[in-house]
Amino acid sequence: MKARTKARSVALQVLYEFDLSGHSPLYSLQFRLEEDPIEEKLVAFTENIINGVTPIVKLLDDLIAEHAPEWPMDQVAVIDRNILRIALWEFAVEKCTPVKVAINEAIELSKLFGTDATPRFVNGVLGSLANRQNEIEQKVQSSL
C-alpha cells in the first residue's frame, strides 16, 4: 500500500470509529498509531484529514446528499460515507489533492474496506461531485 493511501486508511478507520461511537478522533488515532506506526509526515497528513473532516461532517454530508440525491446519507454505509467525506474534503475543501487522485484513492479504500459494490458507488458519487466542483467550492467557501 502506498504511503499516503496508508495514511488515508488510518484516517478512515478513525473517522469510522468516530461516526459509530463518538470516541475522540485524536485518541483513536493515537491508539491506531500505537498498533501500527506510520512515518511522522504521514501522521501529519492523517491528522489534517481527521481535523479537516470532523468539524464539517454536516456540510460534507449535505453536499454529498445534494449532488447524489438517489442515495440518502442515512442509508449509505458508514464506511462508504467516510470514504466520500475524505475525498470530498481533499479536493473541494482543502484542495490538497487533484480530483482524479482523490477519486482513485477513494476507490482504493473502498476496495479494501467496503463491499463489492462500494467501488462503483464511490466512483459514481465522486464523479457527480467532481462535475460540480466549482459550485461545491463556492458553497464550501460561503459556509466556512
Précis, in short:
The protein is an all-alpha fold and 144 residues long. It contains eight helices and no strands. The chain has a single domain, classed as Orthogonal Bundle (N-utilizing Substance Protein B Homolog, Chain A).
Give the secondary structure arrangement, pairings included.
Layout: H1 3-21, H2 25-35, H3 40-53, H4 57-67, H5 78-93, H6 99-113, H7 118-130, H8 133-143
Helix pairs in contact: 1-2, 1-3, 1-5, 2-3, 3-5, 4-5, 5-6, 5-7, 6-7
Q: Poorly predicted ranges (pLDDT <50, ≥5 residues)?
A: none
List the total number of helices. 8
Total strands: the figure is 0
Question: Which architecture per CATH?
Answer: Orthogonal Bundle
Mean pLDDT: 93
Overall number of structural domains: 1
DSSP strand content: under 5%
The topology string of helices and strands comes to HHHHHHHH
Q: Which fold does the CATH topology refer to?
A: N-utilizing Substance Protein B Homolog, Chain A
Q: Return the structural class.
A: mainly alpha
Biggest sheet statistics: none
Q: Determine and state the CATH class.
A: Mainly Alpha
Tell me, briefly, the overall form: globular
Question: Termini distance?
Answer: 34 Å
Radius of gyration: 14 Å
- As a percent range, the share of helical residues equals over 70%
The CATH superfamily title: NusB-like
Description:
This protein has 144 residues and is mostly helical. The chain has a single domain, classed as N-utilizing Substance Protein B Homolog, Chain A (Orthogonal Bundle). The protein contains 8 helices and no strands. It has helices spanning 3-21, 25-35, 40-53, 57-67, 78-93, 99-113, 118-130, 133-143. Helix 1 (3-21) runs parallel beside helix 3 (40-53), helix 5 runs parallel beside helix 7 and helix 6 (99-113) packs antiparallel against helix 7. The longest helix has 19 residues, at 3-21. The model has no long low-confidence stretch (mean pLDDT 93).
